[in-house]
Every structure is written in C-alpha cells, then in structure tokens.
Amino acid sequence: MGVGHDTSLKERMNARLLGCGGDHDVKTTVVLAHGFGANQSLWEKLVAHLVGDERKLSVVSFDWSFSSAIKDPSVFDPLKYSSLDAFVEDLVALLDEMKLSSVVFVGHSISAMIGCLASIKRPDLFKKLFLIGASPSYLNSEDYIGGFEMEQIEQIFTAIESNFQAWASAFAPSVVESKDPSSVDKFKESLSELRPEVALKMAKIIFCSDLRGALEEVRVPCTIVQTTNDIVAPTSVAYYMQKKMTNAPSVDVKIIEADGHFPHLTNTTTLVEILDGVLVET
Questions:
Q1: Is there a catalytic annotation at residue 58?
Q2: Annotated active-site residue in 109, 137, 178, 183
Q3: Is 61 one of the catalytic residues?
Q4: Is 230 assigned a catalytic role?
Q5: What are 132-180's pLDDT values in tens digits?
Q6: What CATH number is attached to the domain comprising 216?
Q7: Which residues of the chain have pLDDT under 50?
Q8: What total number of domains does the chain contain?
C-alpha cells in the first residue's frame, strides 16, 4: 500500500528529527537536504558528528520526492515536479509543518539552490545557508564557466535514456572521486535504485536550469563549500556566486583541498570543522 497523499508531508518525505529534538535548550536546528541521485542516508557520517550529548543541536534530514528512498512512485508527480519551484514549495511546507524557523540549512548540489530559492521566498525560515557543491547553472557561456558544454549535457540525457544502469555505474565513481570504495558504493547504490524516468526528468530540470539571476535576491548569510577538483561544479562557480550575492549579509567561500562532489562522504572531518565554524556564529 502506498504512502498516499492524505499523510503528512513529514511522513511522505521520510523526515527525521535527531539530536536534542524537544529539548528547550536547543540552540540551533540543522536541516540536511541531499542532492540528485542521493538520499538522506548519505548524511550518516555528518549526522554522527553533529548529534552528540555535548551539542545543543537538532538535526533534520529527509528525502526529496525524486529519491530512491521514496518507495511510493505516486509521490513523484512528473507534472507537479516540472521545475525546482515544486521542491521549494515542499521545503517551505515541511519546515512550516515541523514548526521550524531560523534553521541552518545544509544543501548539497541542486539542494543548495533549492535552499537559496526557498530563502528568497521565506527568509524567516533560514538563519544561514551552508551550500555544498552549489551551482546556479551548469552550462558554459561566454562570460560564465558552469563546467559543461550543451553537447556534454545532451550526452548525459542520451546515456540515461538508453542504458540508465550503465550510466549510473560510470557516473558514480566519476563524481564521488574517492579511493574509498564504500563512499563510491554508497552513492552508486542510491543512484542505481532511481527509476530511470525519474532520473531523466530530474537531470533535465537540473542541467537546464539557470538560476544566476536569483543570486542577488538571497538575503541570508551564506557559506559556500567547494572542493578543489569537482567535475560537477568548478571552484570558479563558488566565487561567481559570492560575487553575485550582493544582498546577502555575508558570503564566505571555503575550499576543501580534495577531489569530488561529495565531501560529506569523503572529507567529513574537514566539512564538519567548517560547519562548526558557522554554527559557533549562530
């Protein structure tokens, strides 16, 4: 029996509240939003660092409707989820339903931009944005290096459509970029369990989006975290975002000397140190 749409959004999105959940001494709530091909289990290492007796933190993690962790296929309505706007609406509605505000939002990859858009719509919900591997546009143009030419993006669509499992098996190690097989396998498993039609739909939404014009509307303090070698988002993108976020109170760029698009899997300790610096300031 499916989850159904008469259930709460929290249930449909598998949202979990960890740490000092109903403790009145909680200082900060950290919300973790995974990226394309992932699910909330990819945050496990980060959650282990964040949830501890000495920390006054609540941690919320959830699964987007496109995640392989969502077992009811009806949850992902291709008509509803035809742009990132629907995901922004889900995020805002989830935070409202859970009665959360002034959160530290940790968004990976496309979730970083969903967080930015949600903060524009409802700045009261966000105290800080912590953006990992963010990119407002993946397509190169004359004055912008997004990392991909249109021909490369079209090749991704063709590969997903023709043989999704073969594409997923090749894509996972190329973006995780880790000598630790368990990190690669973690993402590969999550990615491979996606329904091919959902993967193609999301890939088209993500790779064809151009959100550069929204950056100047962000009015929440941001920390942008990038690795030195990420085939999905070049380091130049982080500095482009910093330059364009002219109305945010502060925009810090933190570069991790590492490979790959998943520092929360491969460089967790370094990522936590950066996040701790942000949390100290809240």
A1: no
A2: 109
A3: no
A4: yes
A5: 999 999 999 999 999 999 999 999 999 999 999 999 999 999 999 988 8
A6: 3.40.50.1820
A7: 1-4
A8: 1
